[in-house]
Amino acid sequence: MKAMVLTGIRQMALSEVPDARLRNADDVMIRMGAVGVCGSDIHYYVSGRIGNQVVRYPFIVGHECAGTVSAVGSAVRWLTRGDRVAIEPAISCGHCDQCRQGREHTCRNLLFLGCPGQIEGCLAEFLVMPERCCFKLKEATTLAQGAISEPLSIGVYAVKQSIAMAGAKVGILGLGPIGLSVMLPALAQGAAAVYGTDKISERLALARKAGATWTGNPETQDVVGEIQAAEPAGLDVVFECCGEQEAVDQALEILKPGGKLMLIGIPGFERFSFSVDKLRRKEICIQNVRRQVRCVQPALDLIEERRIDADPMITHRFPFAKTKEAFDLVEAYADGVVKAMIEFD
User: pTM, whole model, 2 decimals?
Assistant: First the structure.
């Protein structure tokens, strides 16, 4: 089969790789239909690593995906050939202490699509996953919507881990795919106001259209001062979604005493720093967000019940053969890109 393979820093080639095949009785073979380009994919593309996860070339990335079932193992019960499915990219063992505690996302033996040292990704014609990682799509749901349920599920999980949204005043620093994936479920669950920041004007406009109360560009505006003027008592929760030290500093300024800081963005450096004085005096609670757990179906429900509209997040579409162009666009933050979607024939 054909796959898009990382061959070096900013290098990618369409290559012939061994065919995907069923190995276990509960395996499902999926013909890929749509793959979203994630920020973590870009980290591997431009630097060859995220932290201690280092790419060994050649390697296939990609984990936001949906497709059509082409074959199933003998123990598969809920899916059949022709079903369209969204994919949970994390394969947990189900037996370790984390899995037994309902923390499959921090499984001791986790295998994650497109993660170096674990398993190759989904930028290929076919993918094999356990049935438990496949979520059947309704007839009206597109494969692109199925693929975007993966980042949306992270937003659903982050909101779930934060505070009760009803009446909450919320900050979202970074309005890329994850920031917007936080904003949509936050609003759906009753957030009273959402204050968002980003350096790309098109993302700010998209957030306002989707329901943000206020948006600002930290490169051209005093975003802290403007948010404090609008909400002098401070915000209940701030989601840091861009992986920037500047955003963490801003979050501590705009949070109210007793507020909660949610760290979601993946930084390109080893350590954040915090103002101990502000943390201590405000008694700020910090919660890290590691992907998601059991939130793919709730994310799909939000889409399929039309409680949110995630389609505007998909700003650019590319055929499989032009995957490298998609990666270059996302890396450069060019043309107001939010989510680039790779679509297969």
Answer: 0.95
